[in-house]
Amino acid sequence: LETQVGIIGAGPSGLTLALMLEKQGIKSIIIENRSRDYVENRVRAGLLEHNTVEVFDSLGVSERLHKEGLVHHGCYINFNGVSQHIDFEKHTKRQVTIYAQQEVVKDLIQSCEERGIPVLFEADATEIEGVETKKPIIHFTQNGEKKSISCDFVGGCDGFHGIARKTLPKDSYKEYKIEYPFSWLGILAHAAPTYDELIYAYHKEGFALASLRSPVVSRLYLQVDNNDAVENWSDEKIWDQLEKRLGIALNRGDIFEKSITPMRSFMIDNMQFGRLFLAGDSAHIVPPTGAKGLNQAIADINNLAKALISFYQTGNEDNLNNYTQKCLARVWRSLDFSNFMTYLCHKQSEEGTFESRLQKSKFDYLRMSEAYQKTVAENYVGMPFEAFE
Ligand code: APR
Predict the structure, then answer these.
(1) Cα dihedral angle (101, 103, 105, 108), rounded to 10 degrees?
(2) What is the pLDDT of residues 276-288, one digit of tens each?
(3) What are the tens digits of pLDDT across the range 293-307?
(4) What is the position in ligand 1's atom list of the atom closest to the CA of 281?
(5) Separation of CA 33 and ligand 1 centre (Å)
(6) pLDDT band at 331 (very low <50, low <70, confident <90, very high)
(7) Catalytic annotation on 203?
(8) What is the mean pLDDT of residues 164-175?
(9) In what order do the strands lie in the sheet containing 5-8?
(10) Which residue ranges have their beta carbon within 6 Å of ligand 1?
(11) Which class would CATH give 5-72+95-176+265-345?
(12) Which residue's C-alpha comes closest to atom 26 of ligand 1?
């Protein structure tokens, strides 16, 4: 096979890249090792920043998002039962939209189909050859057959476990990571949320987050130990702990998904080598506390698509050469904000210690300072793309 941009991974990164390129007449092929059904039903994030929605608007893929997505103008941060509202609208004139990532993926795949962008499912990329040449080759296997795509550029959009990052020479980047000493027990329940906006709650027994996926599906999380297991958590125990930590009554609907996710930050400080460019989870992951993962991925793609488009339109490689540098400023902002929210809201030590007193002081300051609220709001809704120009 042959194309201009060979893309590995049909997650939000790869699909959005293909659609942005197609709009400017640039051809691509996406290969994805999972089935279409799998990627369309994989439960992941669910909060879209203002910027992200604007990108989807510009691609004409946001009709269902605007119909079914829920626009939120703020959120709550609680500390041992005391609640502070963060007003996005007042501080930033921007909002966020609650719309599940698997719905985003469905919309993007459908649009690729309509626009004739080939998405090859159950096609496993095994090697990227010749990234230092002008014609790299992606080798992959599909139905037991060995195949390849010859292209001008490779989009490494294959997530945290993909092969793109492993293809970068080891000495071309530095790795940064933190493993947090706690995990999230996340549930999805057929239950109408009793809250109108997200609630991030510090409680002396641990963090809890009340989120949602739709007016009839609640998404809720509890801080648990890293070595905890879902078997230790009956439905009743989960609901009891959620109500206690959030300090509100909940609709206790049927829990249809229960899983434990470790919390970590990871990034590399180089996202390109020769003609291979990484975007999204392949280059960095953040704890979900700041809802930045999916949004950072789309911000990377916005830079990458623009750089590729300017190369194809003018032959100028400056934007391609500056791609990593352009992305990293925002990646560090996402890491810092996710880390800030994580430490503000999680239980890290017994009450009364130095750390816990600083944590409480941050929360007290959030209650008294409009400036601090604005800082949280503008990071939460996402700094405009132009802020990093
Ligand atoms: N060959 C083909 N496809 C692959 C390979 C491979 N060797 N390895 C991984 N993939 C596919 C995965 O199956 C997955 O569908 O690449 C895709 C990567 O998608 P995501 O993991 O969703 O990553 P990305 O598109 O960068 O999306 C941003 O940030 O915080 C998260 O929830 C957020 O998943 C979202 C991500």
Answers:
(1) -130
(2) 999 999 999 999 9
(3) 999 999 999 999 999
(4) 26
(5) 10
(6) very high
(7) no
(8) 98
(9) 119-120, 28-31, 5-8, 153-156, 276-278, 272-273
(10) 8-14, 31-34, 39, 44-45, 101, 124-125, 157-159, 161-163, 280-281, 293-294, 297
(11) alpha beta
(12) 280
